TrEMBL record:
Gene (UniProt): Prim1
Organism expressing this protein natively: Menura novaehollandiae
Protein name: DNA primase AEP
Group of enzyme by EC: transferase
One GO biological process term: DNA replication, synthesis of primer
EC identifiers of the protein: 2.7.7.102
Amino acid sequence: EDLGVRHRLWVYSGRRGVHCWVCDDAVRKWSPALRAAAVEYLSLVKVGAQGARHPLTPVKVEESWMSLDRPAQHREPLQGEFPKKKDSVQRWELLRARLERMRVSSRAAALGPCYADWEIMLQFCFPRLDINVSKGLGHLLKSPFSVHPKTGRISVPLDLQRLDQFDPFAVPTITSLCHELDTAGSDGEQEDVGETEPKRRARDYKRTSLAPYVRVFEQFVEGMESARRGERIRQSGECWEGTW
């Protein structure tokens, strides 16, 4: 919204990332400098030698701990108690309990609020933008529906209206698709003798788990085509008015 872009296709990488394909005509003509500036504007957490920085609070992770006491005095007891917890959920609750006691102590000692738990969540959970991919005009990019080489999962478009239902572990893999296509081709149905190979393949793919993701892609392309037709009509109307 801030950058005025409209046509954005979100695509799961097939592993642990997500790609945003921005297809507006104006954006595709941006220079590397302008692209880098856009990524800089959209980056909330910036990591460097001095720790995490972001506009939500001026307190850094290190300063949150150092404002109360030496970090080792908090780190060593946690390192001794962490192995006793069975999973990361219990360890996080242990850490939050310690931080809450630190927060209460900081208020009592008038040292200022402690935001260490929020800092940790921002530092480790907030998405990172790949500036090199975003600004480089000649950078190699994975296209939608490619296969991730490590997981075998298909890089599929995301339906933002149903994003809470998306399960990355349920995304079709190249192996599962091959099995589904073999099943579709040998299900015993009567085949049309005059049917061409491309038509048969199109019929088969629609019966696989990839079909709903292809439909998301088709809807995105249809939306772009509709917007482009509308822009051409508007421009032709302006040209027509200018002739009078």
